[in-house]
Each structure stands twice: as structure tokens, then as C-alpha cells.
Write a structure and sequence with these properties.
Layout (H helix, E strand, L loop, with lengths): L1 H9 L32 E2 L2 H9 L11 E2 L9 H11 L1 H12 L5 E4 L2 E4 L2 E3 L4 H12 L9 H8 L3 E2 L3 H10 L2 H6 L33
Helix pairs in contact: 6-7
Length: 213
């Protein structure tokens, strides 16, 4: 289905798709790239881009009519939010003390953050979990993955109790997925009508209608 959606997008363009094997694609070597193609030396005068950069709170220097970006580094604030949430969770505070004492396994502390089997331990905060699930599902680059793929994408990096259940419920409540994605199930078949009674009063039914608006 994903390939079909890409095909519907690309069929409106006149193009030729050519495949280059990895051994022949020597231009993509990082050491052979010119420094002018990096974000650190980006030069632009586009007012729309300037407005977007101001919204990201990126400091800009105006030597003339052009704008030079000295450096651009994008980091996620989720790790800091998880670190603050771990300090406020009493259960995780107990686990951190046990890790420091060396009386518990599968847990470790790296860079001040509690990890479970090398995964970030997300505290029991519904708002934080919802934000993490939203970024992993509703983001433009993730393209609304299914519950199984979304679980495998998050599993190497994050962990909390009932993680798979929360992911399944979040995907099931996504309105975009309900409108766009189809059901990969076998059709229910043709309608099976009820048999027509042979004699009157042979089959009697009654409906109770209550609470009409």
C-alpha cells in the first residue's frame, strides 16, 4: 500500500528512475563533498526561510543583505523531559537508588538518565507518553505507521510498562489512519437474509424502542 501511494504521486511526473549501485556511486562519499553544501555555510535571502529560522530561535548575523548561518544543530528535548520526569517519579527514584547500590540488574544510569536494557525508561506520565507517541506516529516523516511497525521503531530506544498496549490504542484512535488506511481482512461475504415464514404467526419479533431524543 505504501508503494502504491508513492506510485500515485509519481505517475503525474515525467521522469526516468535510474539505479546506481553502491560501488559506482562514489560521489556520495562524505570526504569528497564540498563544504559549501553543508548547512553550516548556508547562504540565503529567502524571507520565508528567515521567518522560519526566527521561529526556531536561531541566532542570525547580518553582515549585509545576505544571512550566514555559522552552525545549525537540532536536538530533541524529549530526553531532557524524560530525565526530569524520572526525578519526579517515586518508583523510578527507588530503582535509581538500587542501581547505585548495585542490587538490581537490567538497569543502568548513563548521562544521568535511567535506562532499562539500554533503552530510555519513560516515567509513568500520560502526557509525556502521549507526546512521544504523537511524535513517532503523527510526524510528517513517519507517515502514520501501524501499531507493529511503530512498536519496533520505538522498542530500541524507549521502554515503559504496557508500551505495546499504549501504542496499539493510540494507533486505533488515530482519525487519519481510520480514514485513509484500508482493512487487510477477508470480506465478510454476501448478505444472508432470514427465511420467509410459510404460515402467518409462525415467526414473531418485537422491538422495544426507548429514550428517543
Amino acid at each position: 500500500m505504501r508503494q502504491r501511494r508513492w506510485l500515485e504521486l509519481l505517475k503525474d511526473y515525467t521522469l526516468d528512475i535510474k539505479y546506481h549501485p553502491g560501488k559506482a556511486n562514489i560521489i556520495a562519499d562524505a570526504l569528497s563533498r564540498k563544504p559549501t553544501g553543508m548547512v553550516a555555510s548556508l547562504v540565503t535571502v529567502d524571507p520565508y526561510m528567515l521567518k522560519e529560522l526566527e521561529g526556531l530561535q536561531i541566532k542570525m548575523i547580518f553582515p549585509g543583505e545576505q544571512v550566514h548561518l555559522a552552525a545549525l544543530q537540532i536536538t530533541s528535548s524529549i530526553v531532557d523531559t524524560i530525565k526530569e520526569g524520572q526525578r519526579g517519579d517515586p518508583e523510578l527514584v527507588k530503582i535509581i537508588k538500587k542501581v547505585e547500590e548495585g542490587s538490581i540488574q537490567d538497569f543502568a544510569i548513563k548521562n544521568g538518565v535511567l535506562r532499562f536494557r539500554n533503552c530510555l525508561y519513560v516515567p509513568n506520565d500520560s502526557g509525556l507518553k502521549k507526546e512521544l507517541l504523537k511524535e513517532s506516529h503523527d510526524f510528517t516523516l513517519t507517515t502514520h505507521p501501524g501499531s507493529t511497525k511503530m512498536y519496533h521503531d520505538l522498542k530500541p530506544y524507549y521502554w515503559w510498562s504496557g508500551m505495546k498496549k499504549d501504542i496499539t490504542e493510540y494507533v486505533a484512535r488515530c482519525l487519519t489512519c481510520q480514514r485513509v488506511k484500508i482493512e487487510h481482512q477477508k470480506p465478510g461475504g454476501l448478505l444472508q437474509p432470514l427465511s420467509i415464514p410459510v404460515w402467518k404467526w409462525d415467526h414473531i419479533t418485537m422491538d422495544f424502542v426507548m429514550g428517543m431524543p
